[in-house]
Amino acid sequence: MEDLIIKIFLALALGGVLGMERQYHDKPAGYTTNCLICLGAMLFTILSEYMGNAGGDPGRIAAQVVTGVGFIGAGSILRDGNKISGLTTAASVWAVAAVGMAVGYGEFLLATFSTTAILILQFVMRKAIHLVEFLKHYDTIFLTCDPNWQAVNKVSAAIERHHVSILKREVTKQDDLFHVSLVATFTGAEFQNITCELLEMPEVHSLYK
């Protein structure tokens, strides 16, 4: 019983720590969600051990946890046009379930070290990635403009005035507007300057990254 209590509190603690990181970044799967996922994965893992001791297949429940949590994570993935968000949250949900399963199997050090690694990845590496803003990297501008090619060419010319080469341009027409996606290599400063200039153009109705 003492071992079970330790597992319950450790699952809640580790899931809660990871959940607070998601909550801090205002993501859909926050503190409570991650606590419940970690605790639930831990309980299912213990049940799979009990099943194995009773002569059943101990891997059956554990395998279903991996699959089932995937559906929960998929619910946090959103698509808006060509923009997809929520992938990191979905991956985090999956990782939290793995931490809970490690706790369920009594691998406390593995669970703790994994939680630490996830936090380092989410906090430290996220900040380090911002260094890429000082280098040229591929990025895409999505915008809507007047439904004529003069507007599209004017937008392209405005971008190229910043000594940025457009690598790919796609145009579709919907709701009496042109929907344009432009792929190029920018630095963070170039991207900001270009988007500010495009938003001031009367031909451009909306713009997002």
What share of residues is helical?
55-70%
- Based on CA atoms alone, the radius of gyration comes out at 24 Å
Shape: elongated
Strand content: 15-25%
Provide a brief overview of the structure.
With 209 residues, the chain is of the alpha+beta class. It has helices spanning 2-24, 31-53, 59-74, 87-104, 108-129, 149-160, 188-199, and strands spanning 78-80, 83-85, 137-145, 166-174, 177-186, 204-208.
How would you describe this structure to a colleague?
The protein is α+β, with helices and mostly antiparallel strands and 209 residues long. The protein folds into two domains: 2-130, no CATH class; 135-208, Alpha-Beta Plaits (2-Layer Sandwich), CATH 3.30.70. The protein is built from seven helices and six strands. The chain has helices at 2-24, 31-53, 59-74, 87-104, 108-129, 149-160, 188-199; strands at residues 78-80, 83-85, 137-145, 166-174, 177-186, 204-208. The protein has a four-stranded antiparallel sheet. The chain has a two-stranded antiparallel ribbon with strand order 1-2. A hairpin with a 2-residue loop joins strand 4 (166-174) and strand 5. Helix 2 (31-53) runs antiparallel to helix 3 and helix 2 (31-53) packs parallel to helix 4 (87-104). The longest helix is centred in the first third of the chain and has 23 residues, at 2-24. It is elongated, with a radius of gyration of 24 Å.
